[in-house]
Amino acid sequence: MLLQTRIILFVLATLAVVAGLLIGFSSLREEAANQQARELELNGLDTAWQLAVAGAAGRIDQSLGRLAGDPEILRALVAEERGTLTARVTALGLLSGRAGQGGADKGGETVSDVNLFAANGTLLYSSDPALDAAPLLNRALLDPVLAGQRLARGVRLLDGNRLIVMAGAPIYGAVSGDGVVVGAVVAGLGFPAALDVLRKNTGGRVFAVGRDGSPLDGTSDPLWSAVRQRINPADREMQLLRVDGHRYALASLPVADLAGGRVATVLIATDITLAMEEHALWSVAYGVAVLLVLVLALGLLYGYLRQNFTVLDGAVQALQDISHGRAMGYVELPSGNDEIGRISGAVDVFRGVMREIERTAGQRERRLRRQQRFIRRQMEALAVTLEEEARQSLLEELRQIESETHDADSAQSRGVGDELGLLALGFSRLATRVSTQQVQLTQMVRDLRDALADKRRLISLQQELEIARTMQLTILPQVFPELAELDTAARMIPAKEVGGDFYDFFPISEDKIAVVIADVSGKGIPAAFFMLIARTMLRAIAESGVGPAETMRRVNNLLAAENEQMMFVTVFYGELDLRTGVLAFSNGGHNPPLRVTRDGAVIELERCQGIALAVMPDMPFAEKSLRLDAGDMVVLFTDGVTEAFNGSDTMYGDARLVEAVGRQVTASAREGLDGVLSDVARFTAGAPQSDDITCLVLRWRGAAGA
Amino acid sequence: MNITEESVGGVSVLRTEGRIDSGNASEFEGHLVRAIGDGSVKLVVDMAKLTYISSAGLRALLIAAKKARPTGGRIALSAMAPHIREVFDLSGFSSLFEIHSDEAAAVAAFGAA
């Protein structure tokens, strides 16, 4: 409440100044009043002094009357008989002190000085024994008396510094007073008489000092020592004395001679202690009253200010609440036309605005939350497209964002904007992951494209291979002539790749049929090529009818001629004479065929010296022959049959083949072929085929016409 | 297939183990060709641990033999299993190689000759 404090301090200062001024002025007025009071007091005392003087003079009057009424004196006065006057005055015994022994006896007032004047103003008698005594009154003062105009009263300073109170009166010829003035009588009384009267009248302590300040009376008073210090003989003033705890008002009255001029000063000390104390009490009471009034006024002012400031405080608090975003707090504010009313009006407006802002902010927040939820859902949906690890960490981040937005503290402290910021962060991470994945995917697509191109090439190659294989297969005789003497069946089951096995069956003359089974080393296109070449050559040379051995020899030389690759082919070549049933054959490194007789015996054909073809030129080839009996079966095969592996890496082997062949003793060629091959298939039981399986079965029925 | 090479008394010895078929025949061929070198080497191919050899493997041996022949190199085969011996006999390739019962004999035969 700095403003309030300032106002109060200002008011205090103003009040203090005003009060000070008021007090100052009232002090001045009081001083003036005091001055006036003192003046009045002095006047009063002055009057008292005059009265005292008059009183003293009055004491003289008696003597004056006696003197003025004495006929002796009258007569002597008229006669100007000085001696008589002197005697008479003495006789009257009016004089005190020096001259009047008998005065006190008479019991009347005495005077200290007497002067008798003739009508013409001549001093006829003076109580002063001095030769040339000065008259008590000078001509100026005497004349009015002689004229009967006035009585002289007052203080006179006689030479010798003796102060008297003096009174003079005219003496009339007749006693009645209505006669002619025959002279004047003046008498004086010691100055202290007047002082005594004053003492009696005022009740104060009276002091007198001479013209020069020398003490005249009152020195016996205990106050004298204090008073004498304060004496200013020429001044008519009132002073304050403090002696022994008492306070005195010391009045100083200069006394003038009848003839004029200051002759003495009378000082009167009045005990005003009680009055002063009373005055002081009144002052204190006054001061206290003023103070109380001030305090009351200040208190009222303070209360009033506080009340108003409280209202202002309320308005300020409301404003502060609003500024801190708490527009919902309710504060009762007074309306009105003054500043506070205006403030409360403005606060109301402001509060309304704030509420509006909060409302819209709330709306905005709700909208942002909706957006945020939407974005989150979209992100979750997008996350599905990420690969597992990235998706998991992204979903984790989303959950984190979710928990933070539902956490009241973080939402309030950071505001909706920051939630979106978090989402934006999560979104940017998602974007990063997506772009990384995009890069990976692009790379994969590229790789795939390359792979696709490769695959296409491969497929085309495979297609060509397929074509080649098909061609190769179709080259092998599929259909055998229906001959009365001979039943033939053959099959080549290629391995995965294009292989090199082949068989052949062709007439070389009207009665002879050539039968071939061969196995080219290796696989794939080279083997296929070589196979075709070998087959063609064999056919070509065989058809020249030079017989098995020679055929083999020639074909071998031809094949071995340009054989960088060292391919070789094992060949069994036989010529069967249909008229006789004689089979002439030559073997170049091939498995000897099996012969099954009618009674079920399975024997190998004779072994025949001969190396596999195409390895080396000029190799010897033997030739053997054999006469078949009717019902004999000859089985030609390649090592794909005997070397067929099953799942446990066991070979089919010669023994099993012999057995299988043996079981076909009564079968037709086809049946026998099927029987053997199915036995092999049963044995391999799905194990991958590593080599071509080729088999040719001949059943000799017997010569025609036999 | 596992092939180890060793030089025994100036004679290169190639020890074969496992199967030689069309899948690894080219690798076998590579070993042989390297072992033959410029062709003047005496090489013993020990088949003590060989379980099977296909025509592709035979081909590899033929290629090595052809490379060795012009420069006077010799290839000996040792410790063939019976069924492998039969393959060689059957195909007539036995006549193309010197065949011994074991590695030592083959090495010795080379040293003596």
UniProtKB/TrEMBL annotation, chain B:
It comes from Azospirillum cavernae. Belongs to the anti-sigma-factor antagonist family. Residues 1-110 form the STAS domain. NCBIfam families: ant_ant_sig (TIGR00377). This is Anti-sigma factor antagonist. The lineage of its organism: Bacteria, Pseudomonadati, Pseudomonadota, Alphaproteobacteria, Rhodospirillales. InterPro entries: Anti-sigma_ant, STAS_dom, STAS_dom_sf. GO terms for molecular function: anti-sigma factor antagonist activity.
